[in-house]
Design brief:
Helices cover 15% and strands 28% of the residues. By secondary structure, the protein is α/β, with parallel strands linked by helices. The radius of gyration is 23 Å and the shape is globular.
Length: 205
């Protein structure tokens, strides 16, 4: 009996190391650092000057209401690598209208619909949350559907990236999307369903 007990004890100890290595190392899933949201190019259509109406509702530009496209609420949380909200961060998005045009002089003299705001910005709430009312992104010549995003904190630009539409056939033909690794694609490609889309932002602050 006494010869068997040490053997059983060693087996139990070995099993516990296999089952819960994180606990033995003093690391938990909650404290593991996250993957920072991948960066992408700003592109040529960031507004040269910010529009007078640049709030979170891109479907209302002044007194005009945009009636085209598929409306969607784009929301998420801005956190650091440890999952803490980045309070005070400012989130900007910009995109083309339903016909593929930006509010920008370089886009054939700014042919975008006047009713579509095309650009929005918000300051995150205490939990790092942001929310925009816009349209689902659409393709235009040479590009798959996408929404541009920039995150700032004070005078610093922390991130510039692009958000892609999951399942769109144009993704595989898009040079910028193809340049991403598998994990980066997963981070930037999200479903748009039922008028909702969630895009979490993780920053290396």
């Amino acid at each position: 009996m006494s010869a068997t007990m040490p053997s059983l004890h060693r087996r139990a100890l070995a099993a516990s190391l296999v089952i819960a290595p994180a606990a033995w190392l003093g690391v938990s899933a909650q404290t593991q650092r996250r993957l920072a949201t991948p960066r992408q190019t700003e592109g040529p259509f960031y507004p040269p000057s910010l529009p007078a109406d640049s709030d979170s509702d891109l479907l209302t530009n002044g007194t005009l209401q945009y009636q085209q496209g598929t409306p969607v609420w784009l929301s998420g949380q801005v956190t650091d690598l440890d999952g803490r909200p980045v309070r005070g961060a400012q989130v900007e998005i910009w995109q083309c209208d339903e016909d593929g045009h930006y509010h920008h002089p370089a886009d054939d003299g700014d042919r975008a619909a006047r009713a579509f705001q095309g650009f929005g910005r918000v300051v995150v709430d205490q939990d790092g949350g942001y929310r925009f009312h816009t349209i689902e992104p659409v393709p235009y010549s040479g590009r798959t559907p996408h929404i541009h995003m920039k995150v700032k904190l004070g005078g610093r630009e922390l991130l510039t990236t692009q958000i892609y539409k999951a399942g769109h056939a144009g993704n595989a033909r898009d040079a910028l999307w193809r340049s991403l690794g598998e994990r980066e694609r997963e981070a930037l490609t999200i479903p748009f369903r039922g008028g909702e889309a969630r895009f979490p932002v993780v920053l290396q602050v």
